[in-house]
């Protein structure tokens, strides 16, 4: 992290309570869970422990799926491949590196990034190491691949593309980093031709996947305020691409819909979020930094509904699950809300140490990776 000696990093958890104090300097507590009548019931299909899980830091290690295999990693470098239907272990690799960006899959590779600034590629078939490459700084989001290149975004807001076969660098894109940033990054979104990335400056860039040449750049949020804390507009949630529209949300800024080909803003609304947006059936869902869950019309950006029952509960990014929207919180509860109006429909506690990564939805199952290392597969009963 020597390249960032002059940059101050702030954790999302600290920011969640910054500015929330009253005149007596007391922090507002997370909202108590409200009672409601469940409309559906979640049941566990299987549970698998993945080592130490997120570890002692504020890692956001996420599971990933390729075909019928589910992959997950823990903070101490253990990577596990499981059958997505029953959780049975297909292979387990113990790298012993401090994991901070995991897991990405693509092109027959399982991809992870480390606190020491390395990207490691494993063989999807058996977990054997194929190559490792040094990048400019810490990797805080899963590397992504289109089958030709592996793209990684590092802590200093550098994007690097590595050859998927050898790990050799193909291109690099550097950007200026603000004085103060939230510790975290969205994973780059990589298609066959284009790499989309959200930056700590509140900008989104589109690059040619084969050469790294810039295609367009768009500012989603403008820094405002007198202090550096007030001026943070990081994009830390993953971008969502639906058809030709790219959805992005910033901290202390906006949620916006961009034209994926040109970067032109189709609509934007004020928002502050650490997680990305999820879109389904013409509606975009967002977890705000203060715990509000909000739905927007995908075409116009007009609000559809708001749920304010989970304030300050440090919610994950939402995931669309059947006819529900799923979020998890700092106490390890997963909450289901109705897509139509945001009313609560179900709740289940899955990890007493909390959940900080977005649930993964595949078909009729939702996979939740808790901070303690328990990966749980759930379905509607």
Q: Can you walk me through this structure?
A:
- 2% of the residues lie in helices and 45% in strands.
- By secondary structure, the chain is an all-beta fold.
- The strands form nine sheets. The chain has a four-stranded antiparallel β-sheet, with no helix packed on it. It has a four-stranded antiparallel β-sheet with strand order 3-4-5-6, with no helix packed on it. Strands 7-8-9-10 form a four-stranded antiparallel β-sheet, with no helix packed on it.
- The N and C termini lie far apart (47 Å).
- Mean pLDDT is 92; it is low at 1-7 and 17-24.
Structural class: mainly beta
Fraction of helical residues: under 10%
Main sheet specs: 4 strands, antiparallel
Sheet with most strands: strand arrangement: 2-34-33-32
Report the sheet-strand fraction: 35-45%
> How many structural domains?
3
Mean pLDDT: 92
Gross geometry: globular
Under CATH, the topology of the largest domain can be stated as Lipocalin
Radius of gyration: 20 Å
CATH class categorisation of the largest domain: Mainly Beta
Name given to the CATH architecture of the largest domain: Beta Barrel
Could you name the key traits of this structure?
Lipocalin, 4-stranded antiparallel β-sheet, 1 helix, 45% strand, 381 residues, 3 domains
Write the layout of secondary structure elements.
Elements: E1 8-10, H1 12-17, E2 42-49, E3 64-66, E4 69-73, E5 78-83, E6 89-94, E7 99-106, E8 109-114, E9 118-123, E10 129-134, E11 144-145, E12 149-153, E13 159-163, E14 169-173, E15 180-182, E16 189-190, E17 194-198, E18 203-208, E19 214-219, E20 240-242, E21 245-249, E22 253-259, E23 265-271, E24 278-280, E25 283-287, E26 293-297, E27 303-307, E28 319-321, E29 324-328, E30 333-338, E31 344-349, E32 360-362, E33 365-369, E34 374-380
Parallel strand pairs: 1-15
Antiparallel strand pairs: 2-34, 3-4, 4-5, 5-6, 7-8, 8-9, 9-10, 11-12, 12-13, 13-14, 16-17, 17-18, 18-19, 20-21, 21-22, 22-23, 24-25, 25-26, 26-27, 28-29, 29-30, 30-31, 32-33, 33-34
């Amino acid at each position: 992290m020597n390249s960032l000696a002059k940059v101050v990093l702030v954790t999302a958890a600290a920011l969640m309570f910054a500015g929330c104090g009253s005149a007596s300097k007391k922090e507002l507590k997370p909202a108590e869970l409200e009672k409601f009548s469940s409309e559906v019931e979640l049941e566990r299909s299987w549970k698998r422990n993945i080592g130490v899980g997120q570890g002692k830091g504020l890692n956001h290690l996420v599971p990933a799926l390729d075909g019928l295999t589910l992959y997950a990693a823990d903070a101490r470098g253990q990577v596990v491949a499981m059958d997505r239907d029953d959780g049975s272990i297909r292979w387990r690799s113990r790298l012993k590196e401090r994991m901070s960006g995991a897991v990405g899959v693509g092109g027959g590779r399982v991809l992870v990034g480390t606190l020491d600034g390395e990207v490691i590629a494993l063989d999807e078939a058996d977990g054997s190491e194929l190559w490792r490459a040094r990048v400019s700084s810490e990797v805080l989001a899963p590397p992504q691949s289109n089958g030709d290149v592996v793209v990684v975004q590092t802590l200093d807001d550098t994007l690097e593309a590595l050859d998927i076969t050898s790990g050799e660098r193909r291109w690099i894109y550097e950007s200026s980093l603000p004085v103060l940033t939230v510790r975290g990054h969205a994973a780059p979104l990589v298609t066959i031709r284009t790499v989309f990335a959200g930056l700590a400056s509140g900008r989104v860039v589109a690059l040619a996947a084969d050469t790294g040449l810039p295609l367009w750049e768009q500012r989603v949020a403008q820094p405002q305020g007198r202090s550096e804390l007030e001026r943070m507009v990081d994009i830390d949630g993953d971008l969502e691409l639906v058809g030709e529209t790219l959805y992005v949300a910033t901290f202390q800024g906006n949620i916006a819909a961009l034209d994926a080909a040109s970067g032109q803003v189709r609509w934007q609304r004020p928002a502050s979020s650490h997680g990305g947006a999820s879109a389904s059936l013409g509606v975009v869902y967002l977890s705000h930094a203060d715990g509000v869950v909000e739905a927007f019309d995908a075409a116009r950006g007009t609000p559809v509904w708001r749920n304010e029952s989970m304030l300050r509960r440090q919610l994950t990014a939402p995931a669309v699950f059947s006819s529900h929207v799923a979020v998890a919180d700092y106490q390890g509860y997963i909450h289901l809300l109705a897509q139509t109006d945001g009313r609560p429909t179900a709740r289940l506690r899955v990890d007493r140490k909390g959940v900080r990564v977005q649930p993964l939805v595949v078909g009729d199952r939702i996979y939740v990776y808790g901070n303690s290392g328990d990966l749980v597969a759930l379905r509607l009963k």
